[in-house]
Amino acid sequence: MKKDRVTKKSLAVDMYAKGMNVVAIAELLHTDPSYVANALIERGFTPAYVDLYTSTGPQNEYAAMFKGLGGLRFKNVEAARGSVGRIEALFQRFKATQDRRGMHQCQLLALVGKNRAEGMGKLSEARLFGDWLRNALAPPATTQLELPTKKDAA
């Protein structure tokens, strides 16, 4: 008789099914909540936990568009460059229609890509996302940004 191997993932699923939350399970298993949440997602659960490394939160209408792009890739510099290029194409499409929400979602996606790549030690890949984001956040060249002075505040 073959005995099933007990893994952290299977323990996490069992604990979650008994009503425990992701953070409590992670503490008991001495692992990250992201690991637990992703183990649950793999098994078809939708835990009430969201962080940089999971995608369990409620999705807006832009999420399907971004998913259709093939997600964020940063296996190497070329993969990251491809992801940034897809973000840029969508950003320009949203900019042309003055869809500020869509533009904002592109900026958020680039920030997530930067942070995830950085967290994996892929600094060149992270820099590509960060450079794109800085450029997207820069005010238009024709606009003069004026900051209030102390004299203006008085």
**What string, H for helix and E for strand, traces the elements in order?**
HHHHHHHH
Strand percent estimate: under 5%
Helix content: 55-70%
Major sheet summary line = none
The number of helices is: 8
Name the overall outline: elongated
Work out the count of structural domains: 2
**Rg value:** 21 Å
Strand segment count: 0
Indicate the mean pLDDT: 84
Low-confidence stretches: none
Structural class: mainly alpha
Give the end-to-end Cα distance, rounded to a whole number of Å.
82 Å
In brief:
By secondary structure, the chain is mainly α.
Explain how this protein is built:
Helix 1 (8-17) crosses helix 3 (33-42). 62% of the residues lie in helices and 0% in strands. The protein starts with 7 loop residues before the first helix and ends with a helix. The protein folds into two domains: 8-58, no CATH class; 61-137, no CATH class. It is built from eight helices and no strands.
